[in-house]
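Onboarding guide, step 5: your first structure request.
Type a short instruction followed by the sequence, for example:

Predict the 3D structure of this protein.
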Amino acid sequence: MSGRIAGGELNYDGIGATEHGPPPLDVECLVTSAYVGEGLAAYRRVVHGMLTWQLQKRAGLRVRADSDVVAPGARVVSGFGVGPFRINAPCEVVWVRRPLPGGGPQSAGFGYGTLPGHPVRGEEAFEISIDANGIVTIEITAFGVPSNWFYAAGGALTKRAQRLITSRYIESAHQLAGGES
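The system replies with structure tokens like these:
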């Protein structure tokens, strides 16, 4: 692994599609949007938290990353579950859009793609936006297919887990927007 926390190469079609779209044909794509707060200060807090892995950590994931700050090429392993039932999900950041100086409507975000050992082969992205009225929203986009027969067999359970973690990401964004520590 040459010092990296996860080995291997990105293992799916459509690398970068969460930024430039559309996702590959024949893969399920889920897009979830939610209100998280209001004002430039709330926007900046959520973006900072997103770009320092706090969105994942506050969602209850154990996060190990090559870098304390999200950057293209950085690798991260998120773990969820308990004890021997913990699943590790290695990814590599494939794109990052940083916030612009000043105010006004804008968005910032990043996308990461799966590496060998992840239960899915695909990509997930997080984008925080502020509109002209100061409304701050999060959009989470994910596409992929199960990485093997075991995860494919757990279809309904896998979808429930994805909905749960997405709701936790949204709650994390609410906490960050509100300045909760």
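Each response can be followed by summary notes, for example: The first strand starts at residue 28 and ends at 38.
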